[in-house]
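Subject: Protein entry, chain in single-letter code together with its fold tokens

Category: Structural biology, sequence-to-fold work with a learned token vocabulary.

Notation: Tokens come from a learned vocabulary of local backbone shapes, not from coordinates.

Start of record: The labelled sequence and token lines come straight after this line.
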Amino acid sequence: MTEAQHEMGRVSSLKAEAIGQPGSRRFRLVAEARNGGLAVLWLGKEQLFNLGVAIKRIIATVEERGRARARSNAPSGSLADASSGAGSLVEFQVGKMAIGYDDGTALYIIAGYDTESEEDAIPEVSLVATSDQIDSLADEAFVVCAAGRPPCPLCGAPMGAEPHVCPRHNGHKMPEA
């Protein structure tokens, strides 16, 4: 497992959530460890969306590698299921995240780094999840991100209850449909 300040080990629950009203929402990833530990990782909307994309990409890569390995019958690595901080709470604003996969256990590893972490710092938290958990997290991240204000079809900026002034209309309001 990735060395981290808070190693959660295997998680029993992994959720993406948005708190607040569209336009002023905050996004978070909530992970509950088997040992009762809890991690709340606050993210930006783009970070959560990009995490979902990264998860889907690594799942596709792992599946393709698995098909190739089945053909060649290659050996795989190993991952310890160690955890620390039973019953602890870790909460921070995410600066960056990393995701990996361990062939030996068929488990995914997510590491979260604090916004104030140095470039070569160890992660603030690491956790281990199954393929089903990680895939569900990606799907949930996409749903949570899409549930906000709809984007303008021309400029992509979020549209709210007030009239949208689109730069592509040279500062004029969008025509009513």
Observations:
- The two ends are 54 Å apart (CA to CA).
- The beta strands are 6-19, 26-33, 38-43, 89-102, 107-114, 125-129.
- Residues 45-72 form the longest helix (28 residues).
